[in-house]
Amino acid sequence: MELISFKDADIMNGESVVLYSVDIDIHPGDFVYIVGKVGTGKTSIIKTMIAENRLEKGEASVCGFDLRTLRPKDIPFLRRKLGVVFQDFQLLMDRTVSDNLEFVLKATGWKDKDAIDTRIHEVLEDVGMGTKAHKMPHQLSGGEQQRIAIARALLNRPQVIIADEPTGNLDGETAEGIMKLLMSINKENGTAIVMVTHNRNIFERYRGRIFVCKDETCEEKKDDEVIDLAITI
């Protein structure tokens, strides 16, 4: 069964179409890259998946929700099925790591304090940050902050993690650690990963399916296709 399916979908950025007739299918356990140069519509696809951008043409479903008929009041229920990781971490800087995670759990309906504490401990252990619960975000390195952001994405045991340039603000060595963590989550939990990147080093080293955004299209890479991207380190 497909977790995410786009069929003949036009992808919007504001009032403008940036990608035409997009077909994407993502299944449990997939590791999928969406790649392309800056400005080719990669992030617009992600925003459509999380119902931040509207879908006006074509068909699309995400974790059982039809994006064409999705009501605004149901968007939070869709997003609980997803874990989202951003390039800039988006942690709440005025509260501890533990409080950041507790905030998300309470916002998504968790009420039992013991269950909340247990789940926070579990996800921090999963990302190698078990001793950092009491820290403030500014006390952590960029790589550690991104690990906390991944822990936050794991809280509600999502079917899919959507990661928008998760290594974009990290040095090469730290980015390697984040990629190994995402690969581990994918293999051990069977969680599908959808990752936006324009870093050739990453998608060539850590194999997955590749969708290429260029010339207002997004198509899956053929085995013999050479991808024309700026290389970033």
General description of the model:
By secondary structure, the protein is an alpha/beta fold. It has a domain at 29-51 and 81-220: P-loop containing nucleotide triphosphate hydrolases (Rossmann fold, 3-Layer(aba) Sandwich), CATH 3.40.50.300. The protein has seven helices and ten strands. The strands form two sheets. Strands 6-7-8-3-9-10 form a six-stranded mixed β-sheet, with helices on both faces. It has a four-stranded antiparallel β-sheet with strand order 2-1-4-5, with helices on one face. Helix 4 crosses helix 5 and helix 5 (142-154) packs parallel to helix 6. The longest helix is centred in the C-terminal third of the chain and has 18 residues, at 172-189. It is globular and about 45 Å long. It starts with a strand and ends in a 13-residue tail after the last strand. The relative contact order is 0.20. The mean pLDDT is 91.
Which characteristics define this entry?
six-stranded mixed sheet, 233 residues, four-stranded antiparallel sheet, alpha/beta, 24% strand, Rossmann fold, globular, 10 strands, 7 helices
CATH fold category name of one domain? Rossmann fold
Q: Classify the oligomer.
A: single chain
- The total count of helices amounts to 7
> CATH first level of one domain: which class?
Alpha Beta
Shape label: globular
CATH fourth-tier homologous superfamily of one domain: P-loop containing nucleotide triphosphate hydrolases
What does the average pLDDT come to? Answer: 91
Write the element-wise H/E pattern from the N-terminal end onward. EEEHEEHEHHHEHEHEE
Q: What's the Cα radius of gyration?
A: 17 Å
Sheet with the most strands, sense and barrel status:
6 strands, mixed
Please mark out the parts with pLDDT under 50 across 5 or more consecutive residues, or reply none.
none
Distance separating the two termini: 36 Å
